[in-house]
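Problem: given the chain below (536 residues), write out its structure.
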Amino acid sequence: MSVFIHRCDPPPGDGPLLAVKDNIDVAGLPTTAACPEFAYTPARDAACVARLRASGARIVGKTNLDQFATGLVGTRSPYGTPVNPFDPTRVPGGSSSGSAVAVATGLCRIALGTDTAGSGRVPAAFNNLVGLKPTKGWVSTRGVVPACRSLDCVSVFALNVAEAWTALTTIAGFDPEDAYARRALTPCLPLGALRIGIPTRAELDGVDPAWLAGWQRALEVLRGLGHRVVEIDYAPFREAAAALYGGAWVAERTAAVGDMLDRGPSGADPTVARIIRGGRTHDAVAAFRSHYRIAELARAAELQWARCDVLCLPTAPEHPTLAAVAADPLGVNARLGRFTNFANLLDTCAAAVPSGFTPHGLPTGVTLFAPAWHDLLLARVGAALQDTLALPMGFVGERLRGAQRIDGDDGGLDLAVFGAHLSGQPLNHQLLASGGRLVGTIRTAPAYRLHALPTTPPKPGLVRGGTGRIAGEVWRLPTAAFASFVAAIPAPLGIGKIELDDGRQVCGFLAEAAACADTQDISALGSWPAWLARAP
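Solution.
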């Protein structure tokens, strides 16, 4: 099947069997990046491999790939092409071809890939798998052969989202030895119904009808889960996708292995060599212009992220045959990156999830995208989608056993508000500007008084010591924003613990009792908006 470049016997134990893409170092096993003349034997595991081994994972081998992780087809290797188990006339997807086929056919439970342009997502879709591409820099790339070093990500393949998420959170974490590692942020995740962004129909011209049907099937499930589908302007994502191979980033591949390819190794794939040598046509001026344009596109994409929480796209526009790739290797590969190439340039995370099967029995898939550090959100949405579709997994056809649980830090601290910060009130914009999300309405325990304070704008003061049940709202603020928000609260207001009528305690706005001494007690009205409605 050409799945593995190197096999090894897993050690005894009950940890999951793990396959590792052969551009990721495993101590004592050669790393080839699918080029025999490039091979070396590392003395040290890549950071991601070391973390998985420490957790009990057992390595079964190094998997085949498009040479130097350059390609989305899975056919550019002197070690052969891994056979797509669903149809041997179709490509397995790349560049992490062997990793995907290994999981799909039950040769391992999880596999590591890399994902610069879509190499962790396209093979997942073509093999009926889940593929998680983390936020750039969350998983160390120390010990990974560079493709585009500033964009490279280690990715995870598994049959289901929960297992992929467990593996991903095991390998994630800041690595001071990796110059491109980033310290993770914990955003305040959206609550309740999400806005699922989709492109206009014109952006989907040329997509295989069977893949469109799979995408539409996923959207119907997401609607059924209570989410709202909204159209966005896909233009910045489209242009960024085209820039990955059409701009100066190809020169990063040249910087990585161009000199070695110039020596004419017999094992070099001609298409890969042509692409990588082409990086020398880009000079420093072109590189800076490309970076400037991507910065502009990232800012344009931010406007679209303000309109949606998650972007949902077909993972690929088609599933090409081996013959089609042989006839047009560059053109077919370029088409496969249509909905994937932008992810790392625009700093998104991504989760590829199966969406069904074509009339010919081939798998289809969708990819969910979100801004950096929203990996947990995508895992939860992806798990709910997979749970609801309830499709057989991989080629082995395994079924889910109950709803998947995705653990993680939702991010944020809850804050109870009762006055000018309520929805629709003059200071609510401060919560929104801090990244706050409305959790829901609340009522205090019958132990508080509400007073109208003589402030501008008008504000109430909540004090303990009474019998009133006062209505308010709970908002969730990102942890990083909570302290600065609280520090800006003027006297006589402050933050303290408030008891709710359901027995919970939350942080919320309280007033100094002395400041309320000579003010009007409006507790009988039950809320600040009720007082405003009665005030002259």
